[in-house]
UniProtKB/TrEMBL annotation:
One MF term in the entry's GO annotations: sequence-specific DNA binding
Annotated organism of origin: Anaerocolumna chitinilytica
HTH araC/xylS-type domain location: 189-287, 302-400
Protein known as: HTH araC/xylS-type domain-containing protein
UniProt keyword annotations, A-Z: DNA-binding, Transcription, Transcription regulation
Length: 405
């Protein structure tokens, strides 16, 4: 398998930030019957189509694919597509999930890698065996049944099935790539995909002209013929689309997200966001992400606490912890003070001393070694902290806890 950077295809995903509730994102799956051609369009969502009956020509980024019963189609937001019927009608199970939900579903780097691989080198249509077709159809029918009932965890079950279908699609496409040469896409497709892969970089018609050995005017013409907008307008829409998908990660500030998706300053990000979404980033976050403030606060505090318990023996400071947890230093200080009434250095010391007390009782090792095992950089600091919090020296504590002979 060729090595690729999954960030380019999936952006900021759940594999990089293990928190958040997917229930806040709608999963829509319905049976749809197309009785007339569908003109050129694209979605901000990720679209899955499973063909139940009928035949059609599917044009994606100006490339033709014939689809028929049993085919599974996965369309990303940068897939500009149209459907031209061959049969009188086309019956499909149509699933739509937000880009944010797809990012959430990337629960491991292996999954990221395989989805990214299929997007990078494969086609948008997967063809299956009769046995596989039956399973996929049953999966879609199960999602529809779950989402139409108001039962406990129905959305989570729907999500798990959606992930399964996406993985089956990716595995099928990856298998096709392994068996044959990589699918050779048209220049229009390559331009759209390149923009999608590099949206956070400083790209322009001039830089793409150098990359693809053609004039800037021709670059813009390809984009305009496909989408009705030039490269710059397409790039802004892609950046804002990904920014919207990142608002689910509530500890990421709007200014951080703006820089992450490619804007050099916050004012440019806010201005372009409002132009496209008709509201500011903060207004979008409030209107699209449920306000579950108390849960998020406690969840963040416990996340910090668990990290400290897991990494107590390592060098710890606010900068390294903020980078590891994608939290600002200010958030860490505020969370610990509000919920545990303590500072970060004091909490680290208390946790280390909890471990030290246990080690002193069960491990027959020099006190110096135990100090280092618990993350202290010197025996002097260890002794001083131990006496201040426990009320005696480590040696006195060990003697007091020793079994009586």
């Amino acid at each position: 398998m060729n090595e690729i950077n999954s960030y380019n295809y999936l952006g900021y995903s759940h594999a990089k930030y293990l928190e958040n509730d997917p229930v806040q994102y709608d999963i829509k799956v319905n049976e749809v019957i197309f009785k007339e051609n569908q003109g050129t369009h694209f979605h901000d969502d990720v679209e899955l189509l499973y063909v139940v009956n009928g035949e059609a020509k599917l044009f994606v980024n100006n490339e033709l694919n014939n689809i028929s019963a049993g085919d599974l189609v996965m369309l990303m937001p940068y897939h500009v597509h149209a459907i031209k019927l061959i049969s009188k009608s086309l019956t499909v199970y149509q699933g739509k999930v937000s880009l944010g939900l797809l990012l959430y579903s990337s629960i491991s780097r292996i999954i990221e890698k395989h989805i990214s691989y299929s997007l990078a080198y494969g086609n948008v249509v997967a063809k299956f065996t009769d046995k596989e077709k039956k399973k996929i159809q049953q999966n879609f029918e199960e999602i529809i049944e779950e989402l139409n009932t108001d039962t406990f965890l129905n959305t989570m079950i729907g999500l798990s099935i959606i992930i399964k279908i996406i993985l089956m699609f990716s595995r099928n496409i990856a298998g096709s790539i392994s068996a044959h040469e990589c699918y050779e896409h048209s220049i229009t497709w390559k331009l759209m995909q390149y923009m999608h892969m590099n949206f956070s970089n400083d790209i322009s018609a001039k830089s793409l002209a150098t990359e693809f050995s053609m004039s800037p005017n021709k670059i813009n013409n390809y984009f305009y013929l496909l989408t009705g907008e030039n490269l710059s307008e397409n790039l802004h829409r892609t950046r804002i689309r990904y920014a919207c998908s990142m608002f689910q990660f509530d500890e990421l500030s709007s200014s951080y997200i703006g820089k992450y998706v490619g804007y050099k300053n916050t004012s440019s990000f806010f201005r372009k966001f409002k132009e496209i979404k008709k509201m500011t980033p903060d207004e979008y976050r409030k209107s699209h992400i449920p306000d579950d403030g108390m849960y998020r606060t406690l969840n963040t505090s416990w996340k910090i606490l668990l990290y400290l318990f897991e990494h107590y023996a390592e060098p710890l400071d606010v900068l390294s912890i903020s980078q590891a947890l994608f939290l600002s230093p200010e958030t860490i200080h505020t969370e610990l003070l509000s919920n545990f009434d303590t500072s970060l250095p004091d909490l680290i010391t208390k946790i280390r001393l909890q471990y030290a007390q246990s080690f002193l009782q069960v491990i027959d090792a020099p006190i110096l070694k135990i100090a280092y095992m618990c993350g202290f950089s010197s025996i002097r600091t260890f002794n001083r902290c131990f006496k201040e919090l426990i009320g005696c020296t480590p040696l006195e504590f060990r003697k007091a806890k020793a079994p009586k002979s």
